[in-house]
Write a structure and sequence with these properties.
Blueprint: E1 7-12, E2 16-22, E3 29-33, E4 39-43, E5 47-54, E6 74-79, E7 86-88, E8 95-97, H1 101-107, H2 111-114, E9 116-121, H3 132-147, E10 152-156, H4 162-172, E11 173-174, E12 179-183, H5 196-209, E13 214-220, E14 227-231, E15 236-238, E16 247-249, E17 256-259, E18 265-267, E19 282-283, E20 291-295, H6 303-310, E21 315-320, H7 334-345, E22 349-354, H8 367-374, E23 378-379, H9 385-398, H10 401-407, H11 421-428
Parallel strand pairs: 6-9, 6-10, 10-12, 12-13, 20-21, 21-22, 22-23
Antiparallel strand pairs: 1-2, 1-5, 2-3, 3-4, 7-8, 11-19, 13-14, 14-17, 15-16, 17-18
Bound molecules: aspartic acid (ASP).
Aspartic acid (ASP) is lined by residues 82-83, 126-128, 158-160, 184, 186.
Length: 429
């Protein structure tokens, strides 16, 4: 007799439907969750038969206590929540972060063939809710695991702001002696199409088989279960709401690719090796709260910038247009220019990034950019807006203003690339 959570085949007079059996809100309705994610109810009297296809993966599976094996590396899986830690809530039909790190091992026991795994619970939340205080908790957990002498860390994380956490951690952790790989899932683990297992296994293989050190992201590289990419921590963005290959490196190459079938690892660029790190791990985990992002738009008024000045904000990332512009040129838009000037005169720092996403801001090309530069707006170069925001908040949290201005245009953690072949070529024309 199938139970809620089991994969079943439901037969009515008209059709045969496959899905996950859900507890029914009413006795005379049988509820199924389809592979598309939609819940469908069938009147009980029309259901001729329900066949079991696969037992629920979330029902307790006996976890054999695997003894630590000497030849395997030690990996800690830190659990923070997100879809990778989620299952369907049979009350609401929604997906919620609800299980523990060790449940992942029960579902994907293969990971224990790759490394001696230890799991730790850091949080169980959706990543859109993360605040700087959570980054500090995650960084402290990483520090603890490093003191415990693990060889690598996997952080299970929601995908929405996974790239922001990887950016924050890259700035916070200096002299990181081991790999810290953030892994998420676009589909929860109780769905046949879940990407959680492949992403976790590829991350574990990458840690076990390479001498890479630093923060990185491991997610599906294609929409099928063929390979995962290892993405750079400060140059990566989530580009799709639901596809499993949702992430892309921006203005940068991938770090590596892990073939899921052969387990072969191919590096795409030079990387920091464990042997390159000589200093001791340093945690710089302060962030300035009074930093904001404003995206410019047609018919913009200065109200948002003025409000930030009034609230004594210290930093503003202005997401401008094109190669580095903002609506500040014609008489109707002078008030925007004046508002920026006032923000800067009040001690604030303004960094300009581009809505184009790809390419580099250059404030020397057009008169508009030059006028912005004249009042002290700083070019965000080829940084993503999210990266510029976290860099500015992190710098302001840890350094005096003069030092922040000195460090902003410099490449600290791979967030600014010296050369962008494609953009530079366009500029030369
Ligand atoms: N909202 C979720 C999160 O980012 C989505 C996911 O995990 O994919 O936490």
């Amino acid at each position: 007799m199938p139970h809620p959570g089991d994969k079943v085949k439901l037969l009515t007079k008209q059709e045969t439907v496959e899905g996950i059996l859900m507890p029914s809100p009413k006795k005379d309705i049988v509820m199924l969750k389809l592979a598309t994610g939609y819940n469908v109810g069938f009147p009980s009297k029309e259901v001729k038969k329900i066949e079991l296809v696969e037992k629920s993966k979330l029902l307790p599976v006996s976890l054999k206590q695997v003894k630590p094996r000497k030849n395997l590396p030690a990996i800690a899986i830190l659990h923070t929540g997100g879809t990778i830690a989620s299952k369907v809530d049979y009350q609401t039909g929604g997906v919620s972060a609800s299980f523990k790190a060790e449940d992942l091992l029960k579902m994907f026991p293969e990971i224990e063939q790759i490394a001696n795994i230890h799991t730790a619970h850091v949080a169980n939340m959706m990543s859109e809710d993360l605040r700087f205080s959570h980054y500090q908790i995650i960084a402290a957990a990483i520090e603890t695991e490093i003191a415990n002498k693990v060889d690598g860390i996997i952080i299970g994380h929601g995908t929405d702001t996974l790239a922001q956490t990887s950016t924050a951690l890259a700035f916070m952790l200096e002299n990181l002696p081991i790999p810290v790989i953030l892994v998420g899932a676009q589909r929860s683990t109780d769905r046949g199409s879940s990407d959680a297992g492949v992403n976790l296994i590829c991350a574990a293989e990458f840690i076990a088989k390479t001498d890479f050190t630093g923060v990185a992201i491991c997610m599906h590289g294609s929409s099928s279960d063929t390979f995962c990419n290892i993405y750079p921590p400060t140059k990566t963005r989530k580009f799709h709401t639901s596809r499993r290959d949702a992430f892309q490196a921006v203005n940068d190459d991938l770090i590596a690719t892990v073939d899921y079938n052969t387990r072969h690892i191919h590096f795409h660029q030079a990387y920091t090796k464990k042997s390159h790190v000589s200093g001791v791990l340093q945690l710089k985990d302060n962030f300035e709260d009074k930093v904001a992002v404003v995206r410019v738009y047609p018919n913009m008024f200065p109200v948002l910038i003025d409000a930030l000045t009034k609230e004594h904000y210290k930093g503003l990332v202005l997401e401008g247009t094109g190669i580095g512009h903002a609506p500040t040129n014609i008489a109707e838009n002078f008030s925007n220019y004046e508002a920026l000037q006032k923000f800067i005169n009040n001690g604030g720092i303004v960094v300009l990034t581009s809505q184009c996403i790809f390419g580099r801001v250059n404030l020397d090309v057009y008169a508009n950019g030059r006028r912005l530069k004249e009042i002290g707006v700083i070019s965000g170069s080829d940084m993503l807006t999210e990266t510029a925001y976290l860099k500015l908040a992190w710098l302001l949290g840890n350094y005096p203003k003069e030092k922040v201005e000195e460090l902003l245009p410099l490449n600290l953690k791979g967030e600014i690339k010296e050369r962008l072949a494609f953009t530079e070529e366009i500029l030369k024309k």
